[in-house]
UniProtKB/TrEMBL annotation:
Enzyme class, spelled out: oxidoreductase
Pathway of action: Cofactor biosynthesis; tocopherol biosynthesis; Porphyrin-containing compound metabolism; chlorophyll biosynthesis
Molecular function terms, GO-annotated: geranylgeranyl diphosphate reductase activity; geranylgeranyl reductase activity
EC number: 1.3.1.83
InterPro entries named among the record's database cross-references: FAD/NAD-bd_sf (IPR036188), Geranylgeranyl_Rdtase_pln/cyn (IPR011774), Geranylgeranyl_reductase (IPR050407)
Record-given protein name: Geranylgeranyl diphosphate reductase, chloroplastic
One GO term of the biological process aspect: chlorophyll biosynthetic process
Chain segments annotated as transmembrane: none
Protein role: Catalyzes the reduction of geranylgeranyl diphosphate to phytyl diphosphate, providing phytol for both tocopherol and chlorophyll synthesis.
Keyword annotations from UniProtKB, A to Z: Chlorophyll biosynthesis, NADP, Oxidoreductase, Photosynthesis
C-alpha cells in the first residue's frame, strides 16, 4: 500500500526514496525503532498447533474453548481454538512471562482428554502489544497493526485491527495524495490517526477494563464464567465481536448486567474465601493426624 502511495523512485536495492512509509512489520517493528516511536509493554502468547485424530477434531466443529485459572494464566486466558485442519492450544500472560512453559503445561493438562492422540505440528511464541506506542505517526511514517500496538486486551484480538488500520492508513495517504499531490504528517494524523482513535479507542478502553476486572483473580474469573451463561451477555458479546465495536447501550439490560456482575464478584469472593478457609482446616486436621502417628 505504501509503495502505491509513495510514487517511489528506486535508485538501488539498498536505497529507496519514497514519500511515505507504513510500518506494518509486527510487534518487533524495525520501522518503529528507526523512527523512535517508543516502546509498549507486551504480553507473551505461546501456542502449540496440534493435529488431532478425526473424531477428536470433530468435537471442535462448532466450538472454541477458553479456560481461566491461575494454572493456565494469572492475568489472561488459555485457549483451544479450531483452525481449518488442527487446533491451536495456547495461553498468554504479562505478569508471569518467565513461567509461560508451566502455564502452557496447565492448558495442555486441562485439555488433555480432548487433544489426546494429537501431534504437535508447530510451536509459536510471540510478544503481544498491551497498548499503542507513544508515537504512531512520526513525520510521514505511520505504524499500523501490531507495530502500532493494536491488539485488544481481554480478547487478544489483533488480526482484524491490523488489516483495518492498514487499510485506513493507506486510504488516508492515497486520498491526500490524490487531492494535493503530497502526503503530509498533518494529513496522516487527520485521515488515519484521528479516525482510528474516534472509531476504536472506546472499544480498546472497555476491553482493558474488562481484563482488569475479570482476569485478575479467582473471584473475577468465577464471575466471568457465571455471567457467560447469561443470554444478554452472550448477545452483547457476539454483536460486539462481529461488528468490532461496542454494541449500542441497552440501558435496562446493561444496568441489570452491572448489578449481576457486582453481585457475582461479591458472591464468588465470599465463596472463594470460604473454600480457602475449609482447605486450611482440612490441612490442619491432616497435620494433626500425622503428628499423632
Ligand atoms: C500465539 C498467538 C495467537 C494469536 N491469536 C490470535 C487470534 O486468535 N485472533 C486474533 O485476532 N489475533 C491473534 N493474535 C494476534 C495477531 O496474530 C496479531 O495481532 C496480528 O497478526 C498482527 O498483524 P500484523 O500484520 O500487524 O503483524 P504480523 O502478523 O506480525 O506481521 C508482520 C509481518 O512483517 C514481517 N516483517 C517484520 N520485520 C520485517 C522486516 N524488517 N522486513 C520485512 N518484513 C518484516 C514479518 O515477517 C511479518 O510477516 C495472536 C498472536 C499470537 C502470538
Amino acid at each position: 500500500m505504501a509503495a502505491a502511495v509513495a510514487a517511489a523512485a528506486c535508485h538501488s536495492p539498498a536505497r529507496l526514496v519514497v514519500d511515505a512509509v507504513i510500518g506494518a512489520d509486527g510487534a518487533n517493528s524495525r520501522v518503529a525503532r528507526e523512527v523512535g516511536a517508543g516502546d509498549y509493554s507486551t504480553a507473551i502468547a505461546f501456542q502449540e498447533r496440534i493435529r488431532l485424530p478425526d473424531e477428536a477434531m470433530a468435537y471442535y466443529d462448532d466450538l472454541a474453548e477458553m479456560y481461566v485459572g491461575g494454572d493456565v494464566s494469572p492475568d489472561f486466558y488459555g485457549w483451544v481454538f479450531p483452525k481449518c485442519d488442527h487446533v491451536a492450544v495456547g495461553t498468554g500472560t504479562v505478569a508471569a512471562k518467565p513461567e509461560i512453559k508451566r502455564l502452557q503445561s496447565g492448558i495442555r493438562a486441562r485439555a488433555a482428554g480432548k487433544v489426546a492422540g494429537g501431534r504437535v505440528v508447530r510451536v509459536e511464541a510471540h510478544p503481544i502489544p498491551e497498548h499503542p506506542r507513544p508515537r504512531r505517526v512520526v513525520g510521514r511514517v505511520a505504524l499500523v497493526g501490531d507495530a502500532a500496538g493494536y491488539v485488544t486486551r481481554c480478547s487478544g484480538e489483533g488480526i482484524y485491527f491490523a488489516a483495518r488500520s492498514g487499510r485506513l492508513c493507506g486510504r488516508a495517504m492515497a486520498d491526500e495524495w490524490r487531492l494535493t499531490g503530497a502526503v503530509t504528517e498533518a494529513g496522516i494524523r487527520a485521515g488515519y490517526l484521528r479516525r482510528w482513535d474516534d472509531e476504536f479507542r472506546p472499544t480498546f478502553r472497555f476491553l482493558d477494563l474488562l481484563q482488569r476486572v475479570f482476569y485478575g483473580g479467582n473471584a473475577g474469573r468465577e464471575a466471568l464464567v457465571e455471567m457467560c451463561a447469561d443470554e444478554h451477555v452472550q448477545r452483547r458479546t457476539f454483536d460486539s465481536y462481529l461488528h468490532k465495536r461496542m454494541a449500542p447501550a441497552e440501558p435496562w439490560g446493561d444496568l441489570r448486567l452491572l448489578w449481576r456482575t457486582a453481585a457475582a464478584m461479591v458472591r464468588c469472593g465470599v465463596l472463594g474465601r470460604e473454600v480457602e478457609r475449609l482447605r486450611r482446616l482440612e490441612q490442619q486436621a491432616a497435620d494433626q493426624v500425622l503428628l499423632r502417628h
